[in-house]
Design a protein that fits this description.
It is built from 42 helices and 4 strands. The radius of gyration is 40 Å and the shape is flat.
Length: about 850
């Protein structure tokens, strides 16, 4: 009993102690909350300037950081009082002297925002920036803390980009400080940072300030023997500096330094030079570019360091593109239907009698001024000083003398340009020496192993007879034998695929290039636009050995810059790049082929429709059968490429469009979405009959895609097809009936909803006349009022209220469907679904169908 009493007393004592602790804890929490509330209430009672004064001198670093972060809000709160604004700016100057680097860095981050505020409120605080803020920025540029310096440099660039600094302040305050920071006694880090910021500031301050203040120190830093980091910064920004200075100053002062940097003993400096070579070349004169920079770039390509060679080859195509002048004679023309459209350059054009269309005669003529425009006229249109040609009497037109031989067959238009290029190359190439008797005898002996071939046997027999009968008449022998061998080559070896090279044919012949000697191949790629050594280095980028010794991605870099190189060389020099392009198109790396696929339309624009049909179309066809990663490049620019082709060639692709529906990965719905967008553009390239026969099935297939985004894009495609077919009533009626059958009467509610959306688009985009709509689409559309799915009725209500009833045609008695339309609308207004009732009764002005329709349909994957 005593033990139990003692236990109960102990329990009561412990319970009492617990209660006392709980009371004390609650009392402490209450006191703490009261003190916090008092603290908050005290801050709320203070003015913005009073709160600023309270925390700006706080010993807590976090409080001072918060002061710097809230300066802009404080200024906005007191912006109407000019005196208080000036007081805040004075506190900013006081806060700038804070000993904590994080506070100074936080302040510097707010300076650009405060400067913009001061600019907007300039009438009330006219000299706020130049008097209070700019000195802080200038002072922090030489701060001892790296974070503060970096922040001030970023703030300075923002202020210059936003044009918040007066030009006089920049020249007198900022530029001298930057120059002083690059002095020899400055630390290495400060000097490097200052030089980097100078190079970025130079384009903003202009040529005059740069030449007077920055250029001497920049040239001095390029020769800094102690710090290669400074030389590397100078090399990396050399192009920008040349672009600012330009002219004689760049060639006399900067280019000698650039030559020194390109031969620097540190490979990182040489690599930086290779990376900026294109911008340096753009700022140089054509003579310097051709005579000096070309040889300098060749030295970088053959640099001992692999990283330098890699950077040089990556910049090679860009450097070659700088040889194209502002009026480059590249002959960029393409034909759209019966018209030739000129792109970027000027060339001589003639009118052909048999076609009546303009065709490019030559791209070698310089751009003509207005005064010389008459010189560029076709000969048939120029005033002629020659006496008029005497007309032939009508009876003489049928004189047999005019037809003394079989007329020469007409050359296809696609081959005319190739023929001109071949003739031009033939003129440049030295003529091959005539074959003597000994050489012909060797050829005959080489043909004897193939004597079983009847064609070979006949040719050899004829050749032997010619040799015997010619006797001493060597000229006749050579002429006859040469003709025989030419015919033999065309009729026998070409058919058998032999690589035997018999005569000096053109570069564009069907013979294998392997039959050409190295010398002939080199001569076939001669041109005079860029230095030949540069072009040969560029063509060597497809060499497999380059991938091992330079860069595994070198072929992709070559493919990326090929359109720019082709633009520079011009269409007349396409033969120089043709083999390289074909090699890249068959590269084993899909990234290389993908790069070409994304740019093939640009190359077609440069080459024109004839060369495109001859050389690019086969490669384009191979890309169509490639991986999806390659096909997407073709698909994204399908319209841009096909519009450059002749109508007959373009029509062949109608049969291949359906292949885009098949992808390596069925979940790649973006591929099908891109196809739908391209089909919308392709409608203008084909006739209504072709659209109905080939594009219509594709559109209907895409409309049933399982991905919502593809379907909604396809609905717009269908509306555009309706517009295209509206010119042919029979095709239109057939297509509209198919839409009603497949969509309005569809078993799936999404199909019936799609029909309503297509009807809405057809009216809004005016794809067909209102009479045609009322006759063929409106009756089945009104039948959707009894659809069991509310989402379909909601979309119907939106279509009727927001689209149809906005047209006066549907409100007048002229429309035979007016009564049915009113009854349908009344039925929707009394619908059991509140959303249907709402959209049928009210016309929300801010709600449009193309914005909310997506919300009424499922976005299933």
């Amino acid at each position: 009993m005593g033990v139990n009493t003692q236990c109960s007393r102990d329990n009561r004592a412990s319970l009492s102690s617990v209660i006392r602790v709980m009371v004390q804890s609650e009392l402490g929490v209450t006191l703490l909350l009261c003190s916090v509330l008092d603290f908050v209430s005290q801050d709320e009672m203070l003015t913005p300037l009073g709160r600023l004064d309270k925390y700006i001198s706080s010993e807590n670093i976090f409080n001072r950081q918060m002061v710097a972060r809230s300066l802009l809000d404080t200024l906005r709160a007191i912006s109407e009082d000019e005196r208080e604004c000036v007081s805040v700016l004075e506190r900013i100057d006081r806060l700038a002297d804070d000993s904590e680097p994080t506070v100074r860095a936080e302040l510097m981050e707010q300076i650009p925002h405060i400067a913009i505020f001061c600019q907007e409120n300039r009438p009330s605080i006219p000299f706020a920036f130049s008097k209070y803020l700019l000195p802080i920025v200038v002072r922090y540029l030489s701060d001892q803390n790296n974070l503060v310096r970096k922040t001030s440099q970023a703030a300075l660039l923002v202020l210059l980009e936003q044009e918040l600094m007066e030009r006089g302040d920049v020249e007198s305050l900022v530029c001298p400080v930057l120059v002083d920071l690059t002095a020899p006694d400055s630390s290495d880090d400060v000097k490097t940072e200052a030089m980097a910021i100078i190079c970025k500031v130079a384009p903003m301050v202009g040529r005059d300030v740069t030449e007077r203040l920055f250029l001497p120190r920049f040239c001095e830093m390029c020769c800094d023997c102690r710090m290669f980091h400074v030389r590397k910064v100078c090399a990396a920004n050399f192009g920008d500096m040349c672009g600012v200075v330009g002219g004689e100053a760049a060639e006399e002062l900067l280019l000698p330094r650039f030559f020194q940097l390109c031969s620097d003993n540190v490979w990182g400096v040489r690599k930086a030079c290779a990376e900026c070579f294109m911008t340096v070349s753009s700022a140089s004169s054509p003579d310097v570019r051709r005579t000096k920079l070309s040889s300098l770039f060749i030295s970088l390509i053959s640099d001992p360091s692999r990283w330098v060679r890699q950077a040089a080859f990556q910049s090679l195509g860009q450097f070659i593109s700088t040889f194209a002048g502002p009026c480059s004679n590249t002959g960029q023309y393409f034909r759209d239907e019966a018209q030739w459209i000129k792109i970027h350059t000027c060339s001589k054009i003639v009118l052909t009698r048999h076609t009546g269309t303009a065709e490019v005669l030559s791209a070698d003529e310089p751009c003509c001024a207005d005064a010389d425009a008459q010189k560029c006229l076709p000969e048939e249109t120029q005033p002629s000083s020659r006496p008029p040609v005497q007309e032939i009497p009508e009876q003489e037109l049928f004189n047999s003398f005019h037809y003394w031989r079989t007329p020469v067959p007409r050359i296809a238009p696609e081959l005319e340009l190739e023929l001109e290029l071949e003739l031009e190359l033939e003129d440049r190439r030295p003529s091959a020496p005539a074959l003597d008797r000994k050489q012909l005898q060797e050829l005959i002996e080489n043909l004897e192993p193939h004597i079983d071939d009847p064609d070979v046997k006949g040719e050899c027999t004829l050749l032997l007879k010619t040799e015997v009968s010619a006797g001493s008449r060597d000229e006749e022998f050579r002429f006859t034998a040469q003709s025989v061998l030419n015919g033999f080559m065309c009729r026998v070896f070409q058919r058998r695929g032999s690589s035997l090279h018999v005569t000096h044919d053109d570069d564009d012949s069907d013979l294998s290039d392997s039959s050409l000697s190295a010398e002939d191949q080199r001569k076939s790629k001669q041109q005079d636009v860029v230095p030949q050594a540069l072009l040969e280095q560029y063509l060597s980028m497809t060499d497999p050995s380059r991938a091992q010794t330079v860069d595994m991605e070198i072929a992709r870099h070559c493919a990326f810059s090929l359109p720019g190189v082709a633009l520079t060389l011009g269409r007349q020099n396409w033969h120089c790049l043709r083999d390289t392009y074909e090699t890249l198109a068959s590269d084993m790396q899909w990234k290389v082929r993908r790069t070409l696929a994304f740019s093939i339309h640009e190359l077609a624009l440069i080459l024109g429709d004839q060369l495109t049909a001859a050389h690019l179309v086969p490669i384009f066809n191979s890309f169509l059968k490639d991986l999806d990663e390659v096909r997407i490049g073709v698909l994204k620019h399908l319209y841009d490429f096909l519009k450059l082709l002749h109508q007959d060639t373009r029509r062949k692709y109608l049969y291949q469009l359906q292949e885009f529906l098949v992808t390596d990965n069925s979940r790649n719905w973006r591929f099908r979405s891109e196809l739908a967008e391209q089909l919308v553009l392709l409608l203008e390239l084909y006739s209504a009959q072709d659209v109905h026969d080939y594009l219509r099935p594709l559109a209907l297939c895409l409309c049933t895609d399982r991905v919502s985004s593809v379907r909604w894009t396809s609905y717009r495609l269908v509306s555009e097809i309706i517009r295209k077919l509206s010119s042919c009533s029979s095709l239109l009626v057939s297509f509209l009936g198919e839409l009603v059958e497949k969509f309005c009467h569809s078993q799936k509610w999404s199909g019936r909803q799609a029909f309503a959306f297509v009807c809405q688009l057809s009216i809004e985009e005016e794809c067909l006349s209102l009479d045609q709509f009322s006759e063929h689409l409106l009756p089945p559309l009104l039948q959707l009022a009894s659809d069991p799915v509310p989402n379909v009725r909601v979309l119907l209500a939106k279509t009727l209220r927001q689209t149809l009833l906005e047209r006066e045609y549907f409100l007048s008695s002229v429309n035979c469907q007016q009564v049915a339309l009113e009854h349908t609308l009344v039925a929707l207004q009394t619908d059991v679904d509140k959303d249907v009732k709402y959209f049928a009764s009210v016309h929300p002005g801010s709600t449009r169908l193309n914005e909310d329709a997506m919300s009424t349909t499922s976005s299933t994957y």
